[in-house]
Amino acid sequence: MTDQANQSRRNFLYVAAGGLGAVAAGATVVPFIGSMLPAADTLAASKTEFDVSTVEAGQLVVIQWQGKPVFVVNRTAELLAQVDGHDDRLKDVNSEAIPEVQQDWMDTPEKRKYRAIKPEYLIVVASCTHLGCIPLFKPTQGRKDWGDSVPENWAGGWHCPCHGSYYDISARVVNGSPAPHNLHVMPYKYTSDTKVVIG
């Protein structure tokens, strides 16, 4: 009886010691692994450089910035002409609803209208402000095969396939869309005639 009790106690002590050892190892390893991850301020400061001259006239390309997709569009004169004439059908004509995404360079009515430092190059986060889907670039006037929800006289821009939000060619949200805001403009600047740094 005594040998059996001693054996049970030894087994219990082995299991308890092993469990405590595992907890101690975890307590040591977790902070060590965490120290290898980039700090939040490092991630926030990350930048993306891109040469906009690589985008053909009328073309949209998608690049990455801080893990987010970003639209870069080279708007032709015809596309830029689509910016005017529908202010009354937009939720936020002057991009004033989200002050934190307004940029210092958005200091003139023209820059606020085109939402770009250089009107031909629009650079916005490629995420619908409703629930984050990626809108489709549809630079021409709406067609019936897009569904009955195409806004009347919509000249073209973006259409979100998830819940039917529409944006104009300056990525400003159209009235009646579930998206509450325009596509976000992130901080960026030109370091040369064609090179931009985002972030």
TrEMBL record:
One of its GO terms (molecular function) is quinol-cytochrome-c reductase activity. Binds 1 [2Fe-2S] cluster per subunit. It is an enzyme of class 7 (translocase). It catalyses: a quinol + 2 Fe(III)-[cytochrome c](out) = a quinone + 2 Fe(II)-[cytochrome c](out) + 2 H(+)(out). It comes from the Bacteria. PANTHER family: CYTOCHROME B-C1 COMPLEX SUBUNIT RIESKE, MITOCHONDRIAL (PTHR10134). This is Ubiquinol-cytochrome c reductase iron-sulfur subunit.
